[in-house]
Every structure is written in C-alpha cells, then in structure tokens.
Write a structure and sequence with these properties.
This protein starts with 7 loop residues before the first helix and ends with a helix. Helix 4 crosses helix 11 and helix 7 crosses helix 11. Helix content is 76%, strand content 1%. The protein has a domain of 217 residues. Strand 1 and strand 2 form a beta hairpin. It has a two-stranded antiparallel sheet. It is mostly helical. It is built from 15 helices and two strands.
C-alpha cells in the first residue's frame, strides 16, 4: 500500500489549525452550531429556515444570552453565580411593581433594580473573597435569601409594565428586534471588557492562578467582586427583558427558566473552563444559540420533554469532556 505523505505546506496548515482551535476555544462551538443547523434543516425542512423561525430562535436566546454573558465573567475568575435566577425574579417583580403602568416610573424603576443588582453582586463577591466561602455555597445561600423574600411578599403576577417599556421585547428597528440588539450590545460590551481592558486581562489572570496573579500585583479580590457585580447586573438586564415580555413581574420567572443552571451550561458548552482562566463570551453566545436551536428543533419535532432534558444533559457532558481532553493536550 502506498502511504500518504504530508507535505511541509500541509503540515504548517495542520499546526496552524491546531493553534487556531487552541487560541479560540469558542471556534468549535460555531462549527457544531453550523452542523446542528444543517441537520435541523434536513429533518424539519424549509419551514426551519423561514424568517419567523430564525427570529424565534434569536429571541429565545435573548434572556439566557444576557445573563450567560455575565456568568462568563464569574466563571472566568474561577467562581460562579447560582443566585442569578432569583435575582431575575426580584428584578421583574420590583420593576413592574414600581412602574405599575406609569411610563414616568420607568427610569426610577430601572435605577432601583440596578442598585439591587449591585448590592447582590457585592454581597456575593464579599462573602466569597472576605469570608472565604465557596462560590457554590455563597451564591446558593444568597439565592435562597432572595427566594425567601419573594415567597414572603408575592404569590403571582405583580404590577404592570407600561407600553413604552414593552417595546424592549416587542419593538425593533425594521426587521431587527430591540431585544436582539440588546443582546448584541451586552455581548459586545463583555467581549470588549475581556479583550481590551486591564480588568478583563486581570480576570483571565485570576482565573488562571489567583495566587500567582496576586503575587504579580493584581488585586484579585477586587477582580472577583467586580466579576460578580457585573454578573448580577446582567441578571438584572434579563429580569427587565422578561418583565417587558410578560408585561408584568412574576416570582417564578427566573427559577422556572432555570437561568442559573442554563447560564452555566451555555458558558461550559461555549468553551469556558469551569476552573477559570480560559474561554470567552463569544463562545458563550454560541452555546446559547445551540441550546435555543435544540429547544426549537425539539418543539417542532414534538420530542418528549423528559427525552429533551436527557439529550441536553448528554450534550453538556460531552462538551465538558471534549474541552477537558483538549486542555490536557494543550498542556
């Protein structure tokens, strides 16, 4: 048998491809997303690629995409945030109650929930850094506190969102909805932060090795606190979007959307290492699109809800396994 010979030019291309995949951990996500899109097109037919269906996938990505962008920051510094689901509910409830149909209350309501988001993020960050409580326990505990407050004060829908604010979920510029533009702005802001600011570079350093970063002059505690504050603010953004979409607030809107676990899943599927220090928001956006696309396909194929969860879980586990293998090879 004649053996194939790899020319120097081909070898350079292979090395370059490996380096590109290593330097861009989110790149394979979009290859998988493209393959899933083509498979869905084959299974469902032309109705899958209609404008309305593609728009539905994009709009389904908005709520999760915004909070997942913030979750990316928390995970990059070697932490995570399980309080985001209940913070989303608190935001939707408080904002809608303060607005209560009055357009003059939009700005004050938004300012109040931003303040709540900053407070929750500071609380999470301080508990983790100063009290040295594990991030999983710290943010879970804060989330349970928020849940208790919600359960003690509201049962169902509260207040009403004025029509001027509903434009966030139902308006747009031409064929492009405001909600999709909002997602794009948030993702760009996080990408710019990570790529072009000192804080972003410090987040990678702290996530890679907090002790080494501290010895190099990085104030690691401040970086972790900042990551949690920004993560909480993205949860506030998702809460405002959902309030606009529902035209009211509801205490169950965050937990029933599983925004805590779903945001972590999107970040992991997008190639960000759970240990921190590696990944990025563009990969997270790809992970969000994959989850939204799968939901759309499962609904159109009328797949059983339990089977749908099993398949999604298998995809997440497979993604983590693939990235773990790649990480070991890159070492």
């Amino acid at each position: 048998m004649q053996r194939s010979v790899v020319t120097p030019q081909q070898n350079r291309w292979l090395v370059g491809a490996r380096k590109s995949f290593s330097a861009n951990p989110g790149l394979p996500v979009y290859l998988v997303l493209g393959a899933l899109f083509l498979l869905a097109w084959y299974l469902i037919g032309t109705r899958f690629v209609t404008y309305d269906n593609v728009l539905s996938i994009l709009q389904r990505s908005v709520g999760l995409g915004i909070v997942a962008a913030g979750q990316t920051l928390a995970i990059l510094v070697g932490s995570l945030d399980l309080s985001v689901a209940y913070l989303i509910s608190v935001t939707a409830v408080v904002a809608s109650a303060l607005m209560n149909g009055d357009p003059n209350m939009i700005v004050p309501a938004v300012a109040v929930v931003i303040g709540i988001g900053v407070l929750v993020g500071l609380t999470n960050g301080l508990i983790i850094t100063k009290l040295r409580v594990n991030a999983f326990i710290a943010t879970l505990g804060v989330g349970l506190i928020l849940r208790g407050i919600l359960n003690a004060t509201v049962d169902n829908f509260t207040g009403s969102v004025p029509q001027q604010f509903q434009v966030l979920a139902y308006g747009g510029i031409g064929p492009v909805p405001w909600s999709v533009l909002l997602l794009a702005i948030v993702v760009f802001a996080v990408w710019f932060l990570l790529r072009h600011t000192r804080l972003g570079h410090h987040m990678y350093a702290v996530g890679g090795d907090e002790e080494t970063a501290r010895l190099s002059g990085v104030r690691s505690h401040r970086v972790i606190i900042a990551a949690h504050v920004l993560c909480s603010l993205t949860a506030v953004g998702t809460g405002l979007f959902l309030a606009s979409q529902l035209r009211a607030g509801a205490p169950w809107v965050g937990p029933q959307g599983f925004y805590d676990l779903e945001s972590i899943a999107a970040v992991v599927v997008g190639g960000t290492a759970l240990a921190g220090g590696r990944g990025g928001v563009l990969g997270t956006l790809g992970g969000v699109f994959i989850l939204a696309l799968l939901d759309n396909v499962f609904n159109q194929l009328q797949i059983n809800a339990y089977v749908k969860e099993i398949i999604r879980g298998m995809i997440i586990v497979a993604a983590v396994a693939v990235y773990a293998v790649r990480s070991r090879r890159d070492v």
